[in-house]
Amino acid sequence: MSSRRALITGITGQDGLYLSELLLSKGYQVHGLIRGQNNPKRVLVEEISPEIVLHEGDLTDFASIARALKASDPDEVYNLGAVSFVAHSFRSALHTSNVTGQGALNVLEAIRLHDPDNRIRFYQASSSEMFGKVQETPQTETTRFYPRSPYAAAKAFAHHMTVNYREAYGMHASAGILFNHESPRRGPEFVTRKITQAVARISLGLQDEIRLGNLDAARDWGFAGDYVEAMWLMLQQDEPRDFVIATGELHTVRDVLEIAFAHVGINGWAAHVATDAEHLRPSEVDHLVGDSSEARAHLDWEATTSFETLIKGMVESEVTAH
Ligand code: NAP
Ligand code: GDD
């Protein structure tokens, strides 16, 4: 069994939970940064394993990150913490920039001071949102960024800092440019979970309609469980570098509705869906689809869960939970 140690920021989030499970299954000692004095999501982490060691801290608080590094003395650090909801980032741009952008720099700098010999390997949760108003399709590791939200701009800053720490200080720092990935653990504010939760409730007679924004938005949606595997693989490589992680398939919000409603036996979903300007964004990302040939070639990574299986599984999980 390995005795490697990992420190995860954002451990209470969707990816943090899946990554914890993956690392525990590989024999890692898992540490997590958890914010707030009484975080209600602590229980989710404790459900996965009481052995996970939690360190109170916040990405905007450099000293708390330094303390967590000292206490955990990790071999690998996964920076998954972020204000991650794009719509919210427009309403809270400065805070998003502090957490999602400068927060990553705080982690990089704390690692550099704690570990001048570059023993620690670092993973940054970069995002396909950085491609924004896409400059080519599909998007690859070399596609130019065109951020369309405070979230995306903050992620682009964090991405460039990760590359810079790698090049300037020789740090084993890699960024995964991950396309949308979902699961029953997805936050209810994101569109796939919002739809699958509502569809389950509608099928059970608990709700009549769902209010959405842009139904034509198209994304490359995969399963979060597959994607955390890619994060881990990136840190097992001899050389650090960045990878696009995606399924290569494009689907619209309408496709999500179609599959989710059909799965509970409701055809003609339009009667249950209202569009609401409140859910439109000041500047939208119309479509994102990734080419992860590099990940296939160098990490032997491939998405294994189809879009249809993903959405049906999310509906099933909601029905069971009610
Ligand atoms: P998520 O479920 O929203 O989780 C975000 C995590 O960040 C939570 O644990 C949250 O903690 C933590 N956090 C927020 N503010 C913080 C702060 N000030 N200090 C420390 N931690 C803070 O996100 P996710 O879907 O798991 O995504 C993980 C990462 O990948 C994020 O960086 C996201 O931007 C990025 N990403 C996600 C996707 C995707 O499709 N899921 C795609 C590309 C990139 P609380 O529980 O305390 O709120
Ligand atoms: N959330 C939400 N709610 N989105 C809606 C709605 C709605 O009611 N109606 C339409 N949409 C559209 C959004 O406008 C967007 O174009 C698309 O559905 C997906 O929205 P989200 O599920 O909120 O995800 P996202 O693509 O904006 O961002 C997610 O993926 C990024 C990777 O590309 C987040 O997980 C980011 O953190 C991540 O970086």
UniProtKB/TrEMBL annotation:
GO terms for biological process: 'de novo' GDP-L-fucose biosynthetic process. Its cofactor is NADP(+). InterPro entries: GDP_Man_deHydtase, NAD(P)-bd_dom, NAD(P)-bd_dom_sf. Its EC number is 4.2.1.47. It comes from the Bacteria. Pfam families: GDP_Man_Dehyd. It is an enzyme of class 4 (lyase). One of its GO terms (molecular function) is GDP-mannose 4,6-dehydratase activity. Keywords: Lyase, NADP. It catalyses: GDP-alpha-D-mannose = GDP-4-dehydro-alpha-D-rhamnose + H2O. Residues 7-314 form the NAD(P)-binding domain. HAMAP family: GDP_Man_dehydratase. Belongs to the NAD(P)-dependent epimerase/dehydratase family. GDP-mannose 4,6-dehydratase subfamily. Catalyzes the conversion of GDP-D-mannose to GDP-4-dehydro-6-deoxy-D-mannose. This is GDP-mannose 4,6-dehydratase.
